[in-house]
Design goal:
It is a single chain. The protein is an alpha+beta fold. Helices cover 43% and strands 22% of the residues. The chain is built from 14 helices and 17 strands. The protein has a 5-stranded antiparallel beta sheet, sandwiched between helices. Helix 1 packs across helix 2, helix 12 crosses helix 13 and helix 13 packs antiparallel against helix 14.
Amino acid sequence: MTSANTTSANIKTSANTKPSRSEITEREIAEIEAQMYADAIHNIQIGIYIWQLEDSSSDSSSDDDSSSDSGTLRLISTNSAARRFTGVDAKGLIGQTISEIFPALAATDIPAIYKQVARTGEGRNLGEIAYGDDRVEQGVFSVKAFPLRGQCIGVAFENITARKQAERAHLENEEQLRIIFEQASVGMARLSPDGQWIQVNQRLCELLDYPMPALLGKTFADITHPDDLANDQEAYEQLHSGDKSRLTFEKRYITRTGDIIWANVTVSTVRDRTPQNSQLLYFIATIQDITERKQAAITLQKQKNDLLAVNIMLTDTMARLEQRNEELDQFAYVTSHDLKAPLRAIINLASWIEEDIGATLPDENKDQFALLKSRVYRMEGLINGLLDYSRVDRTHQSHERINVTHLLNDIIDSISPPSTFTIELAPDLPVLEAKKTPLVQVFSNLLTNAIKHHNRSDGTIRISAQDIGSLYEFTVSDDGPGIDPAYHEKVFVIFQTLKARDDLESTGIGLSLVKKIVLAEHGSISLESKLGQGATFRFTWPKSPHEGIQFT
């Protein structure tokens, strides 16, 4: 709009009449006002159309008579915002009627409303109007009509299509958010930028034991465990400032009844992403109850700490035991040496006396010397047996590949059974990885025991083996006098013998030593026997060597 247009519309003067001083002043003032008004409407961002109403009586050529109100609305000015929003360029359109410029409005009530505003001088708010034609994409506009002098009206409109679309999207998002809140299996909350809960779901109310109205309006800090407030505040500041858009962390809440629950919390920010703004709108938080898992983790950690403490204690105990075992081994060695020395002296003295007296020694004294020497030999056997018994599972031994058939042949050769005695070996005896010395001790003691306690010199011993998974089960059977079931447990007790030692020389250590060795290797041993039906010893032995418990 130009000042010329405005003054021509609002001020009428006669060319033959000389204006007075007062008339010139008013015209100058009117021109200044018009110019200022024109500048203002051209610079604002709201579209402005300025129309002038011409009565039909003064313009017989009016083509705008479709309206029930007489008169014609002609365009006298627009601003740049109007041209940008509607696609109508004012150049060449000034002076055209509203029907010529906007044919789609001709059949509406809008022209009549505009005329009414021009005549009455009362503005009208037309609200939101959908409009579009071949020049302008369909959109929504907020329209207001306001009166100007000289039956002119200004029509201000604002394209609110984007805002309406954003509002619809916001409503759709709100509805989706409501559905998510209702259907979520975890606690959910929406928080305002200052950290207040403005929306929560029923699951969160159940989790925190609060009615919904009592939670709304609270801040996250109101029911946070004091020890977690600092971390919560740090997370809030990172999210609020935009340094982070999403954070996940664990924290403790205090329920309405004062109980403490652990929760896994994920918080995301929702911001206005328009080009001109990135304002924080709200936070979305999901709260998952992890109390049971956390308590289990705490319990496991405590157990781990306890185990570490026990492990340290056991390591220390094992070190002490190893030291004590070394001391015991040293003690046993020294003691056995000191005990065997006088025993050997007694044997030597007895032998010298027998040699010196010779044939003059009475038979009764010969029996006494023989008894003396047998007691000495028994004592030496006890000392050796006790040493072997005390060292079971206390000395480290390397394992090796053992052919059991070859091993038994060597043992039989070393114990030299009577030539009339038969020892039968099964053809399928295994080859295994094992500690050789313990296995030799077990077979040697079982074979020696079977020969010693047999009631005939032509007895038979049978040795066989059976694969039972991770173990081999060995069987040593004889056809001797058998053992009463009442004494099956007694035979494995140290120093226990079924016959008097004077009747049968025995230390009572052999079978107890066998049992201790087998158990030390994680095996088992049993006896099957009845009087007069021989005896069968069964023991199991691992296919791979047992190295003992390792403490680290």
